[in-house]
Each structure stands twice: as structure tokens, then as C-alpha cells.
Design goal:
Length: about 325
Amino acid sequence: MSRSPWRLLGVAAGAAILGAVLWQMGTEPFVTGLSSLGPWTLALGTALAVPSTVACAWRWHLISRELGVKVDLGHAVASCYRAQFLNSTLPGGVLGDVHRGVHHGRHAGDAGRGMRAVAWERFAGQLVHAVIVIVVLLLVPSPVRSSMPAVLGVLTLVVVAGVLVVRHTPAPDPTSLVARVLRAIRDDVRSVVLVRRAWPGVVLASAVAVGFYFSTYLLAAHAVGVTTSAVTLLPVALLVFVAAGLPLSLAGWGPREGMAAWSFGAAGLGAAQGVATAVAFAAIVLVANLPGAAVLIVASARRRRALPAPPRLSPLVEGGGTHG
């Protein structure tokens, strides 16, 4: 399948999940989530988004430097705000990152390496996030704690199977597209994964981002009236973040609300409270990402100013020719 059908399939899946949540829960949790937000809550959520965005931008800066397409931190922050705004307003939830990779690749003179820098940045963030999720779900009581040993066993088998497949698969034709892609991945792994100076910063940046995401989720939960402790909410929120990261959504909507309903219900907090919290969180994030819209507007204005002015017509032509 081409990229477009895959994207449409992801959007359809997100719409189906969101429709199922609406059918089961009704509109009341959605109304509660939105009506619970006041200006101070939105302002605090916008402030919490600043360090998380800077952390993600720093992670991109570190990885792009190792790949030879270094992005300056200030430009990275602006681009991350723009990407987050697009991710939260366009179907699929990843188009902002695609735009970020293409834009930086063109600016750096290497579109492929620019795209790979963004892909590796997202992969590194998800990897650290996954480790945090696994550790928390193993140590903190949650609806899935008893299932974690089995989950770890399955993940181990998948990793081992992947390594065996790679090791025993015949080498492709060196001139083929597959061979070129594999060589690019191998070179990137050597540059990013094996460069020790990048990974401490990548891990720190990812942990900071997750911490401020969780703080925003606590803010949303408090706004809708959830009174349970942060320790109880931590594994629930991490499960919601995992679902929200799936490319099966309508600008982030769908899996996030579905997982929130299930995880809150399984934790004894009420499925309706979970959906209301997820909706409030989504609204806070959208408002916090509005600086990305400003970045888009400024960039568009700069492009228009950079365009060459249309040639002026001669007075004869402007006057419509001679009269007689």
C-alpha cells in the first residue's frame, strides 16, 4: 500500500475508536473536559509546554549534530512548536514531524538525512519513553502490573527474532533500494546509537519531556475533579501517552480517549473521568501549541516577502494601448 492509503487507514481507525467511545460514554465527558478549563489552567498548561518543547528540540539538536545536519537550538524550538501544532490539528498526528524533517532537510542541503534525523529523534524519544513506561508499570500498582512479565517476555522474543532475521537474511543487491536504505540505517546507527556523547543528553531530554507531559496530565485531571494521588495517576497517564503516540488518530483523538476510558475504569477511577481528563489534556495541549501557529504565519510572511516582485507594466500597456 502507498503512504496515502496507510494514512487513511490510520485516520479511519482513530475515527472508529473515537466513535466507539462516544457511543459508549455519550457526549457528557467531552463537555465536562472542555468546560472545566479556565484561563489560569490554560495559561499554566502553556507554561508547562515550554520546557518539554525545549527538551525535545535539544534532543533533535543532539541527534542532528551526529548525523551531520546540525540544527541550531533556537530554530529547533520554533520548528518543534510548529510540528506540535500541526500534529495536534492535522489527521494522523505525525504530519508535523514529516514537515519538520522535510523543511530542515532542504535547509541543510540533504533532504534524506534531514528526514532521518527527525525519525531517529522520534525513535530515541519513544525508546526512552518505553523504558520509563516498563519500569513504572513493573514497580507501581496499575491495571496491567500483573501482565508485565508476559509483556516483557513477548518483547524479548520479538527482539531476538528480529536480530536472527537480520543476521540470516541474504544480503540484497548492493545497488538496490533496499541495500541503500540498509546502509543508511547502519551508518545512522553508528553515528547516533554508538556515539556516547549524544545519549546522556538524549536520555535526559526525553525524561524531562515525559515529566512535563505528566505534569500537564495532572493539571487536566485536577481540572475535571480527579482527586487521586499522582502515584496512582502515573501508570494510567503513561498508558494514555503510549496510546496517543500511535499513528491511528484524528489529530491525536481516538486511541488517547479509548485508553483513558479503559485505564481509568480498570484503576477504579471511572471511565467517564478518564475521557474527561483526556479531553481536557488535549485542549490544554492544543492551546499550548498555538505558538506553532505563529511560527507558521511568520514563515509564510517571510516567504511572501522573499518572492520576486512581478514586473511592472509599461505606461502604454497599463493605459490599455493608444486611443484613436
